[in-house]
Amino acid sequence: MKTIRLLLILMILSLNQLYAQEEINTDSVKSSSRLALGKIEPYWLTVTYDKTTHIIFPSKIKYVDLGSEHLIAGKADEAENVLRIKAATRNFEPETNFSVVTEDGKFYSFNVFYSEYPASLNYDVLKMERIVSKEKSANVLLEELSGEYAPVIEAGFKSIYKRNKKNIRHIASESFGITFLLKSIYVFEGKFFFHLEVKNRSNVSYPIDYISFKIVDRKTAKRTAIQEKEITPVRMFLPLEPVQSRSAESNVFLINQFTLSEDKMLVIELFETNGGRHQRLEVQNDDLIRAKQLTDLPLLF
């Protein structure tokens, strides 16, 4: 009888231990799953000793952290959105890593391998983001965004671009089969979002060289501007890609908030690469002060 009781006690203790272990394992799996949901997948990069690799970010670089002494890096002179990086030692192994935080509140992670013959020496992060998953970057809080979370800015970009709503109907130019128009202006926390679109109705593709924003004197705007002030966008949502024949492309530009006096206007100009089909938009102060609140637009987080 005592033997049977002892066996029952041992069985109960064994079962309790098994259940406890299963609960621990389950909690561990759940914890790992939660961590996996927040994981930022890194970009892969090859560097070498004798040549410098340049990485172009969509905004100014605020912070760089190198994973080991095998790398040296720094911002390019007079180009605060360009990172120079190279190997400090030859044939280092295993791989190392580095991280970058940019002024627009994005965090980037890179795994770095040594190669005598790197696949490329120049990278454009905006183009990389269009090809690979957005999980390779994350948003962080920066003071430059007036205490607001950078994801709101990112959500604004996505919402304006994807919803493609036209709130402005009187600002456009058309010539040579190209239509350039300002579709909408949104405002949020001291920042303007300008939504621009280019339509190509011709049979010849339209490669975009650049888009400029400048404040000019209204009296001389139609001739050579005597006084003009360039405005540099804080960021644009997408890289400038060619507009193929019989198609349209749009983009969103983030610009620090400003207003215009009665004798000034904002001129937005579109320039064609190796061509003359340039376009021009004129924006008045009334258009700026009638900008829609970004928070009135359902945001896509």
Give the secondary structure arrangement, pairings included.
Layout: H1 2-37, E1 43-47, E2 53-56, E3 61-66, E4 71-76, E5 79-87, E6 96-102, E7 106-114, E8 122-124, H2 125-131, E9 137-139, H3 150-163, E10 172-175, E11 178-188, E12 191-200, E13 208-217, E14 228-231, E15 235-236, E16 247-256, E17 264-272, E18 279-283, H4 285-289, E19 292-293
Question: Could you characterize the architecture of this molecule?
Answer:
- The protein has 4 helices and 19 strands.
- It is α+β, with helices and mostly antiparallel strands and 301 residues long.
- It is elongated, with a radius of gyration of 27 Å.
- Mean pLDDT is 82; it is low at 6-10.
Q: What is this structure, in a nutshell?
A:
It contains four helices and 19 strands. With 301 residues, it is α+β, with helices and mostly antiparallel strands. The radius of gyration is 27 Å and the shape is elongated.
Main attributes of the structure:
301 residues, alpha+beta, 4 helices, single chain, 40% strand, six-stranded mixed beta sheet, Immunoglobulin-like, 19 strands
- Determine and state the CATH class of the largest domain: Mainly Beta
Order of helices and strands: HEEEEEEEEHEHEEEEEEEEEHE
Identify low-pLDDT runs.
6-10
Q: Which shape, going by the Cα principal axes?
A: elongated
Q: How far apart are the termini?
A: 67 Å
Secondary-structure class: alpha+beta
